[in-house]
Amino acid sequence: MRLMNSENVANIMMRALDYVDPRLIDHGVRTGYCVLRMMEADGGYDKGTVRDMCIMSILHDIGAYKTEEISNMVQFETGDVWEHSVYGYLFIKNLSPMPEYAPVILLHHLEYPRLKGVDCSDETKKKAQILSLADRADVYRQMGQQQPVEEYLKRYVGTKFSKEVYDLFLKQQKQERNENGGKDRQERECYLDRVLGAIREQPFSDEQIEGFLKMLIFSIDFRSEHTVIHTITTTAISVEAARRLNAGERLTEKIRHGALLHDLGKIGIPVEILEFPGKLSPQAMNYMRTHVDLTEKILDGQVDDEVTQIALRHHEKLDGSGYPKGWKEADLSLAQRIVAVSDIVSALTGTRSYKEAYDKERTLSILQRMKCEGLICPYTVDVLTESFDVIMEEVKRQCRPILDIYTGMKTEYNDIIEVCRNL
To answer: Which Gene3D superfamilies match (predicted)?
Structure first.
């Protein structure tokens, strides 16, 4: 089952990260446009490489979501560029379907003379330089300076940028002005259309699309590790329950994708609410509940509608007491009911900042009570009760690699940051 296409991937990515801070996504799109035009001016890159660099341009500052650097990103001379560069490197390396581009992200702020001495391919260095110059050109333009950007950047040739890459920038600037009657064209729609067009021209494989989908889910860990583990757990339980209920291969795949996407909107919920160590106030709970609305806005028109509805209805109850729509039993498909019950099991058996994991007996007791009250699907409760130990063992198996990755990233960060600061 093909969940989405390459353009859908880019749209969902930008919508999701936009809820964290729109400044970085707007900056990423503008940077991507400049990178695209520079690579076109070079003439030596195939469509796949151009597409990949457009994606990396959108994501190049993703490490800033983990740091407090967002408000400082407009400064050309940043005091410490390495924190977000290393976080971004680790994210792309470990959690994206494009790990080969991780060094480009890591090195995109390194000055040219130092970059020459780094042990990596010349092609990686050139891509890092293209991204670096495009990045800084956009920052300068957004500062509203009067001096032409070409003149401003020229002073850094040989110190921050290579002459080769600066000449590419001049070439693309000349081409663009010829196209636009001698004027710079800086409308967001122009940038976005061209960047999405380059992404659309070279489609991603199904495997890559799946990788980007997981990458977005993992990106929430930059704000709440518990949320990511909960998502992986909910997905594993949903799939195991669907198989035992003979949902069929195609529907089970839709259930898997819906479960994977069900909490994507939490990327837009403040971390102090996500990780609050106790019962949320009514106001905070109302805010938390908006994650379903955010998920809908992110997925709208980009993903199979059945998958979207599975993701959006995981907090509905059979008696109409759930949210956000108050759907009742007749409105909820088997797939939606399976994910709703699996979400509850995942929440009960998982740790949170405010609770320890519930054991088997307590979890099953709560499920049985909710079943008897007519709140959740009795068939799903029955199969989970019958196969609880086997299912939860499979959950542990699927979560272990993710936990290992996060543990390894923390260790690797400490090792890399020291090396980078000494470059």
So the answer is: Hypothetical protein af1432
User: What's the pTM value of the predicted model, to 2 decimals?
Assistant: 0.88
- Note the pLDDT of residue 182: 54
Domains, the chain, in order of start with CATH, read 6-204 (1.10.3210), 223-407 (1.10.3210.10)
pLDDT tens string 36-66: 999 999 999 999 999 999 999 999 988 877 6
Look-up of token digits 């086997």: 390
* C-alpha to C-alpha distances, 350 to 268, 331, 359, 363, nearest whole angstrom: 22, 29, 10, 11
CA distance 341 to 383: 11
Check if the beta carbon of residue 350 is closer than 8 Å to that of residue 226: yes
C-alpha span between 96 and 13 (Å, rounded): 12
The arithmetic mean of pLDDT across residues 263-290, rounded, is 89
- 327's CB contacts (< 8 A; 6+ apart) are 313, 316, 320
- Among 92, 156, 151, 103, which Cα is nearest to 126's? 103
181 pLDDT band, cuts 50/70/90, is low
| Start-to-end C-alpha separation, the chain | 46
CA 308, 3, 210, 189 torsion-angle sign: negative
Query: Which residue(s) pair with 352 in the sheet?
Result: 355
DSSP bridge pairs for 161: 157
- Please give the Cα distance from 344 to 228 (Å, whole number): 15
Instruction: For helices 122-142 and 47-59, give the axis angle rounded to 10 degrees.
Output: 50
What pLDDT sits at residue 66?
62
Question: Which structure tokens are listed for 97?
Answer: 């379907």
Cα distances (angstroms) measured from residue 30 to each of 9, 26, 58, 292, 410 = 18, 6, 8, 29, 31
- pLDDT tens-digit series, residues 182-214: 555 556 678 888 999 999 888 898 889 888 888
Q: Are 230 and 342 in contact (CB under 8 A)?
A: no
